[in-house]
Write a structure and sequence with these properties.
By secondary structure, the protein is of the alpha/beta class. The protein is built from seven helices and eleven strands. The strands form two sheets. The protein has a seven-stranded mixed beta sheet with strand order 7-6-5-8-9-11-10, with helices on both faces. It has a four-stranded antiparallel beta sheet with strand order 1-2-3-4, with helices on one face. β3 and β4 form a beta hairpin. α1 (43-55) runs parallel beside α2 and α5 (124-130) packs across α6. The longest helix has 13 residues, at 43-55. The protein is globular and about 50 Å long.
Length: 222
């Protein structure tokens, strides 16, 4: 078996450092002992963008993506968005973007330089908290689910207060889409209580329909 090679470490404000590993042509991003991302498993992250855009009712969508990760969601969004669409990516960890432009540049495929993209090196929670009717969709993939795995302060995003802020940041009929490694019935109930119509979908991690099953909530603002 090809050994796993540590490529780099990135500090996370208020959280454990992230580590980037490479095994052959595959990359893995790990926090503590938890593997957050693997370049072989992109299906559900791509679906986060594809299925959200399918549900939008505007010809010129404006999206906010929380967490760049390995760029699967961003690249999928760019493939579906019209020329007049726009995507903001809120990524708190500059090291993630450095990896995207460095050792993972082939995987990045130039998406960071697309004129429709704006990279904001900020906490997505802070971006959401000050936005007022700014987005047609907010796509969150900053943890392994509705909890603060990478940063404890991320837990606010999934509380009633965080859900209310997301609703305010969305335009009428806008969608809050949240990726998770597993179901979370209490979170789904909080979304409904917060004034969203909620659709929950289970998807395989890999684009070929294999791998573990992940969950995406599509919550439409009433």
């Amino acid at each position: 078996m090809i050994p796993r090679e540590l490529i780099g470490t990135a500090e996370v404000p208020g959280g454990e450092p992230l580590r980037l590993f490479r095994r052959g042509r595959d990359f893995m991003i790990v926090v503590d002992r938890n593997e957050l991302m693997n370049s072989r498993m992109s299906g559900s992250e791509e679906a986060l963008a594809n299925l959200t855009i399918e549900r939008l009712r505007t010809p010129e969508p404006r999206l906010l993506i929380g967490g760049y990760g390995m760029g699967f969601t961003l690249r999928a969004a760019l493939a579906r968005l019209p020329r007049t669409g726009a995507v903001e990516v809120a990524e708190l960890v500059p090291g993630i973007i450095d990896w995207a432009r460095g050792p993972m540049a082939e995987l990045t495929a130039g998406c960071l330089d697309d004129p429709r993209v704006r990279i904001r090196l900020e906490d997505v929670g802070a971006v959401i908290a000050i936005a007022r009717g700014a987005y047609d969709a907010i796509l969150l993939d900053v943890d392994n689910g509705p909890d603060g795995l990478t940063r404890h302060s991320n837990e606010w995003l999934y509380t009633p207060a965080g859900i209310a802020a997301a609703k305010t940041a969305l335009r009428p009929g806008g969608i809050l889409a949240v990726w998770s490694a597993a179901p979370d019935a209490p979170f789904a109930r909080r979304l409904k209580a917060g004034g969203f119509d909620v659709e929950e979908m289970a998807l395989h991690a890999r684009s070929n329909g294999k791998g573990p099953r992940h969950v995406i909530w599509f919550a439409r603002r009433r």
